[in-house]
Amino acid sequence: MRRNTRLLIFLTFVLCAYTHVAFAYSLNETKGRIGNAMMGFTRNAAVKVGLNFGATTPTKIPYGVNAQAYAPNFAPVLGFYRSFHFTPAFALQVGLQFEYKGMLVRARVHDYYTEVNKEQDGVIVRFRGAFTGEITTQVSNSYATLPLLLSLRITPGYALKFGGYASYVLSHSFAGTVENGYVWTRPSDNTSVSNKVFIEREEFSFNKEMKQWDAGLLLFGEHALLNNFYLEAGLSLGLTSVFRRNFTGISYPMQNIYLSLGIGYTFPSKASHRE
User: How many CB atoms sit inside 10 A of residue 18's CB?
Assistant: First the structure.
């Protein structure tokens, strides 16, 4: 009986020791695999945080629009990027970034075509026509963006990047007010007469008229800093209007034209081309 008990204790001890060794080995293997996976994931990779500042605007300021005040929104950018090198100095960079674009602008306009909602006798009536007065526009959009860039390292400390982007709209807002003016309505199917409608202060919102996608061109410059950090500045130019094709509330395309300034970090790599 004592011999069986000793044998059972011995076998239990051996089993516990084996389990401990096997667990430690498995843990080390798991750590190694995770480490290798992380090294593979961050190889030639970078992260960046920054700010956008610019405007959702026509490429040319229309006649009769006189901007009186402008303020950029707080528009952060957060992105992750991977580079695929053709040579040590030439690479393709792809990524995923989440960003905001927006602004607040106040202008004095003359014969500015738009659509205005006005309450008359308890009923909201939409007037389309040429507005003269003061207009305030607030834009605030958020995007998930896929940038695609060709990177050319000019010197060890400087690189030039150019390419394009496609963005999916996560949220959008294009709204504002018209004040202290009047609208000359356009003739319609029901009447051939233009009416002068005085506006004290009315709100407008074109949120439902905005598209879910945006696309455009990118041009960036990069300056290497210490310890794998870098400074990046650039321009994004939307090629299409933020509004749907059949939208008539504004008579010209409104495009995203924004500057960007950010700081990034390139993960260390044995095969780093930044060094």
Answer: 10
- The pLDDT value recorded for residue 61 is 81
| 3-state SS assignment for residue 19 | helix
At 21, give phi and psi (nearest 5°): -65, -45
Residue 45's H or E segment, with its range, is strand 45-57
| 8 Å CB contact between 121 and 175 | no
CA distance 145 to 96: 6
Q: Is 41 helix (H, G, I), strand (E, B) or coil?
A: helix
Q: Which residues pair with 208 in a beta bridge?
A: none
Rounded to two decimals, what is the model's pTM?
Answer: 0.79
Contacts of 221 (CB under 8 A, 6+ apart): 158, 159, 160, 161, 232, 233, 234
- A 10 A CB-CB count for 242 gives 23
Q: Which residues are within 8 A (CB) of 157 and not within 5 positions of it... i.e. 6 or more apart?
A: 223, 224
Our CA angle for 152, 157, 158, nearest 5°, is: 40
pLDDT digits (tens, 9 = 90+) for 149-175: 999 999 989 999 999 999 999 999 999
In a 13 Å sphere around the CA of 140, the CA atoms on its Cβ side amount to 9
